[in-house]
Amino acid sequence: MLAPCAISWAVWAGILDVSQTPLAFMGFKYTHVILTVLAIGELIADKLPFTPSRKAAGPFIARIVSGALCGATVGAARNSMFLMAVLGAAGAVAGTLGGAAARARMAAAFRRDLPAALLEDVVAVGLAILFVQALR
């Protein structure tokens, strides 16, 4: 949920103008707030022992759809919605697999998952902020 949250904030702040597209809802009054709450919930839930793997079918598909939505939103502001949706979905696949592998390596190095998970969160939030800034 971090990526849709970041993109929604970019739309709400006027960095991306999608007001005349089907994705205008990404900039509605409360969309960024709702997505922020969901992103924080996901960051917390990710640390729980019973949370399924991000590579399981359901979470993986949700990440692909979320990536496509983010890509489409960026693309809608630049008249290339379809291409950017495909690239967003591909980025979600790469991020899911790469993030899982990196976290597994860090967890092995730390001999615990929690420090790896927290470091992963810091990197993800930092990258989201950098990406939104790059959209300016």
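The above is record 1. Record 2 follows with the same two-line structure.
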Amino acid sequence: MTSVGSHVREVQQFIGGEWTGAASGATFEDRDPFTGEVVAVVPAGGRADAARAVAAAADAFPEWSQSAPAARQAIFLKAADILESRRDEVVGLLAKETGCSFGFGMFQMGFVPGLFRQAAAAPYAPLGQILPSDHPGTLALGIRRPVGVVGAIAPWNAALILSARSIAAPLALGNTVVLKPSELSPLVGGTIWGEIFSEAGLTAGVLNVVTHAPGDAGAIGDELVENPAVRRINFTGSTAASTRSSYSRTPISSTR
């Protein structure tokens, strides 16, 4: 993330561990909902960007899914520390991007580091359970495994919490993620996680962030629900929103 002028930031998408513009080269202005001032210039990504992000996530999945629990735990603990070190900046961005109050911004900043520290314990959770068997004298064993690429679609309200929630469990349990933040919160609901998790040591391609201009969510959503490499969709939204969008064609599923 770079600064353009004294207040406006220039951000890029995070795909395959690299910061990149939209395939089309298009951008849009992320504006303060109260003042109308430009907060950031953001890539106006499309279906090609989403497809590239899914491919990067799919390529990263075999190695990440086999990573040691300690490695995943260390990344989440470090991510929590990094986020806390950026508290004032993030609370300010929450106000500028989403119009939330200082109190609600501080609440989100208090919640998310705790969420990441809870996620840090998930890699050590039991992988399965003993099941009854119809064969006398025997038992069956059910084992849970990472499913693959998870498409995460996060809203603008409570942008920090709900975007973090959409990526924490999938990543901690060995899946890879393509995150599509709202066009109203592409920074605090999206690109900030690329910054934080890459600094925390996350392997390239494990987390990808694709942004889009207002009104252009459909193409990215279509790619996430139609690409066979995407095995789960994590979507937060109202019933009305889901029935108006292409996302409703895929059921909301667990990530493990």
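Residues 242-256 have pLDDT under 50 and may be disordered.
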